[in-house]
């Protein structure tokens, strides 16, 4: 019999539509504006007293709250606000109440009911242009990048000279120039020949200093440019990896200019944790412990990290390798139940470690934890022609020993770090190293919170555009195709629900261009119905019976609809693969909309037509 579906097809359509309604439902629950608080270190705990102090400060400032809660691991807290427009002043109030030992950031707290969350349903993530968010501008310290590379080269050259038994004296480096002193010209010439064979990065010159022959190794301009480029690219990769480790969806991480990196974290992401992790320029240095009676010029003294009661230790200035040669790091526990980090090095790092340890069995090797900490400092600065005391950011480099162990055997590209204070510290250190070491420190030169008011206006305009587009399309279909146009309108509503559900289920981020993609999808969705209904009209005009005309209309228009949809889907995939930012947002909604349109325009409308006309003796169609 014509125009009849088997029962299983009706059940399938109902199942898909119900599933779509359920997974689109979380979008009806808007997020609460919130203030997120976390400690400046991984071991710092946020408790109820801290939240009570925050709520009291906000109440005194006249800022209403909905409540506060401690995070599941006790390392963060969340205070929900009533008005989104009060997030920025609330952030300032909380900062003043807690001081510099806490990281305070704006966030959005979900309000989705637990029963929806338990089945994996959640609202769509909104892009920065819709929900607001945080914009960071980080600057790579190029001078420090040069210094770091000079230190590594200095250690390598020292090892090379010692291996060839060339006697030398280390002299302090000057900028991008290494200096080595020799007692006679024969030793200098031998060192220069050896270094010229091994390195092309230096321009070697000679000079004298007091009673010494001095070899000057200056980095070439090409090497300096390569170091700068490598530093930015390595830090860019590291930032992306750290954001990915944090689970931030659809972030924007891109280079800006010669030495800056832009990071945008939209929507509901844990911006406090992200700021703390991104702000850390933690790295490692592996050095040998100083030998007894070693010259003071070749050693440095460092405290142990968190090791009250342990005396400081002297270690060599020469660096074996740094954390940017770590390829993998995983935290777990040793045989005594103490936290540790298992480390894997790249090929060059493994070679350096083997070379340093094979001749130093029985000596100690220290692991230095290096961190750049941002502080505020008051300075005199001219403002509008008047000298004033203003606060400017300053940075302090802190180095401390996290491990000092005796080398028991030659180490290769795999070993472990022990002596960590807590599992949280081990986990964070592993995250930072796994994400990649920074080639140079980075500083927050700009932090801009994009307020929710602009996002709310964009959402309002986007919703209005969608509603207007939907109504105009519906009027057009009703006027042109009457009852069949009504069926198309119902299918169009379900298409919108399925699109929202699919985007929510896949975790896609909705942006302003994405809303444009949704509006375009509504117009494209009825294209299929226009093809079908126009074909039905043609078949009726040729003298075909209504039942046969409906059947032939859907059957013959199907191939044209599939061809058109596949070509548009192909364009959407190309846009997503080759585009970035707003283009990706448009491509996502366009591609998903084509998939849902195929289902709603063909199967849903056909099911409604079959239920209405199937099995009946119809003389005339309202078309």
From TrEMBL:
GO biological process: intracellular protein transmembrane transport; protein targeting; protein transport by the Sec complex
Gene this protein is translated from: secD
Annotated organism of origin: Halopseudomonas xinjiangensis
UniProt-recorded Gene Ontology molecular function terms: protein-transporting ATPase activity
Role: Part of the Sec protein translocase complex. Interacts with the SecYEG preprotein conducting channel. SecDF uses the proton motive force (PMF) to complete protein translocation after the ATP-dependent function of SecA.
Domain SecD export protein N-terminal TM: 2-106
Coiled-coil zones: none
Protein translocase subunit SecDF P1 domain segment(s): 232-289
One cellular-component annotation, GO: plasma membrane
Residue spans crossing the bilayer: 462-481, 486-508, 557-579, 585-609
Positions of the SecDF P1 head subdomain domain: 308-440
Family of this protein: Belongs to the SecD/SecF family. SecD subfamily.
Binding partners and assembly: Forms a complex with SecF. Part of the essential Sec protein translocation apparatus which comprises SecA, SecYEG and auxiliary proteins SecDF-YajC and YidC.
Name of this protein: Protein translocase subunit SecD
Keyword Glycosyltransferase: no
The entry's keywords: Cell membrane, Membrane, Protein transport, Translocation, Transmembrane, Transmembrane helix, Transport
Pfam families tied to this protein: Sec_GG (PF07549), SecD-TM1 (PF13721), SecD_1st (PF21760), SecD_SecF_C (PF02355), SecDF_P1_head (PF22599)
Compartments, as annotated in UniProt: Cell membrane
Major place of residence: membrane
Gene3D superfamilies listed in its UniProt record: 3.30.1360.200, 3.30.70.3400, Multidrug efflux transporter AcrB transmembrane domain
Membrane topology: Multi-pass membrane protein
Positions of the Protein export membrane protein SecD/SecF C-terminal domain: 445-609
InterPro entries, per the entry: Acrflvin-R, SecD, SecD-TM, SecD/SecF_arch_bac, SecD/SecF_CS, SecD_1st, SecD_SecF_C, SecD_SecF_C_bact
């Amino acid at each position: 019999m014509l125009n009849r579906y088997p029962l299983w097809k009706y059940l399938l359509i109902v199942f898909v539509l119900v599933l779509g309604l359920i997974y689109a439902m979380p979008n009806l629950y808007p997020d609460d504006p919130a203030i997120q608080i976390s400690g400046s270190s991984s071991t710092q705990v946020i408790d109820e007293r801290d939240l009570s102090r925050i709520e009291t400060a906000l109440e005194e400032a006249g800022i209403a709250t909905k409540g506060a809660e401690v995070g599941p691991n006790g390392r963060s807290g969340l205070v929900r606000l009533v008005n989104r427009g009060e997030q920025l002043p609330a952030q300032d109030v909380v900062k003043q109440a807690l001081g510099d030992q806490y990281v305070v950031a704006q966030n959005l707290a979900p309000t989705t009911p637990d029963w929806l969350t338990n089945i994996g349903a959640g609202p769509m993530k909104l892009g920065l242009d819709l929900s607001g968010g945080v914009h960071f501008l980080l600057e790579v310290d190029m001078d420090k990048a040069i210094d770091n590379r000079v230190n590594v080269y200095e250690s390598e050259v020292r090892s090379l000279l010692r291996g060839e038994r060339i006697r030398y004296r280390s002299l302090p480096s000057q900028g991008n120039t290494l200096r080595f002193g020799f007692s006679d010209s024969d030793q200098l010439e031998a060192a220069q020949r050896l270094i010229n064979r091994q390195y092309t990065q230096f321009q070697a010159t000679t000079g004298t200093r007091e009673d010494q022959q001095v070899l000057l190794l200056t980095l070439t301009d090409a090497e300096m440019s390569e170091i700068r480029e490598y530093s930015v690219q390595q830090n860019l990769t590291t930032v992306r990896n750290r954001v990915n480790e944090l689970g931030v969806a659809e972030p924007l991480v891109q280079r800006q200019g010669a030495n800056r990196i832009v990071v945008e974290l939209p929507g509901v992401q844990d911006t406090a944790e992200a700021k703390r992790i991104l702000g850390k320029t933690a790295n490692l240095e592996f050095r040998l412990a100083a030998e007894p009676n070693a010259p003071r010029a070749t050693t440095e003294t460092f405290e142990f990290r968190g090791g009250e009661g342990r005396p400081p230790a002297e270690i060599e200035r020469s660096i074996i390798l740094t954390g940017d040669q770590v390829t993998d790091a995983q935290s777990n526990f040793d045989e005594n139940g103490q936290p540790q980090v298992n480390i894997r090095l790249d090929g060059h790092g493994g070679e350096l470690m083997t070379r340093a340890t094979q001749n130093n069995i029985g000596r100690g090797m220290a692991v230095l934890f290096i961190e750049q900490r941002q502080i505020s400092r008051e300075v005199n600065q001219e403002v509008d022609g008047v000298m004033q005391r203003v606060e400017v950011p300053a940075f302090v480099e802190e180095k401390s020993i996290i491990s000092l162990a005796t080398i028991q055997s030659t180490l290769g590209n795999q070993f472990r770090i022990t002596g960590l204070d807590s599992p949280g510290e081990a986990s964070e250190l592993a995250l930072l190293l796994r994400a990649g070491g920074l080639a140079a420190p980075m500083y927050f030169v700009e932090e801009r919170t994009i307020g929710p008011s602009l996002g709310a206006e964009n959402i309002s305009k986007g919703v209005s555009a969608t509603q207007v587009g939907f109504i105009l399309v519906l009027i057009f279909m009703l006027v042109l195709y009457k009852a069949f146009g009504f069926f198309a309108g119902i299918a169009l509503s379900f298409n919108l629900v399925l699109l929202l559900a699919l985007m929510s289920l896949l975790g896609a981020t909705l942006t302003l261009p994405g809303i444009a993609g949704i509006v375009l999808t509504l117009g494209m969705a009825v294209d299929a119905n226009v093809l079908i209904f126009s074909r039905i009209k043609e078949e009726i005009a040729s003298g075909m019976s209504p039942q046969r005309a409906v059947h032939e209309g859907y059957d013959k228009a199907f191939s044209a609809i599939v061809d058109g949809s596949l070509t548009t889907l192909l364009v959407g995939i190309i846009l997503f693969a080759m585009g970035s930012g707003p283009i990706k947002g448009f491509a996502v909604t366009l591609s998903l909309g084509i998939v849902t349109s195929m289902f709603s325009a063909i199967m849903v409308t056909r099911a409604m037509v079959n239920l209405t006309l199937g099995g009946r003796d119809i003389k005339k169609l309202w078309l």
